User: What shape does this take?
Amino acid sequence: MKTLIQVLSFTASTAIALSTAIASEAISLTNTGGAINDNGVTDFTFTASGITPAVTGKVNLTFSNLIHPDLFELELYFIHGSDTLTLVDSISGTNLTNTVFDDAGLAINTGTAPFTGTFAPQGSSGLNETATISLLAGFNGSDPNGTWTLRIYDNFLGNTGNLGLTTLDIITVPFEFSSALGLLALGGLWGTQQLWKRRKTRLAKMNNSILTCD
Assistant: This one.
């Protein structure tokens, strides 16, 4: 009996520790960029692996410099798993310089070139891809591990461009099974309490029997 109670107590305390010890994690992935295919499509990828906890809580994308003489020719999409987000769809101006995509900013199509600062994605579906989400928050709750793709379409012939260093920042949320572990902890504590009650009852009965015999 004592051993079982000790095991249950240990299980409960361990579950509580696990549910609170695993915190969020910040990950930065980079792509050095390269030439953007003229009148074609170019994919730039970020590969994440071994991230735990494996639940996306926030995503940002930062362009150090995307050079192109006419951004109206370009469409930029961000893809992960089954989700596709339109970052840019035929905006006016030249270049993206130190441009951060974050839902907290104003929509990118309300800004002016070179769009330095923080902007929200354009969101709506473009000519070449159908958007499944309208904000970066649409990636929240997904597994951050795997391939994230920045897809750039150049829809017209003649102008060429280049993508500079681009950074993907991912923040994961705390351990997704914390509530389940909390319930396990409560269950273990409840079980321990019930066993102690039974033990006390049995001891009381044994004492009464001894007194009766005397």
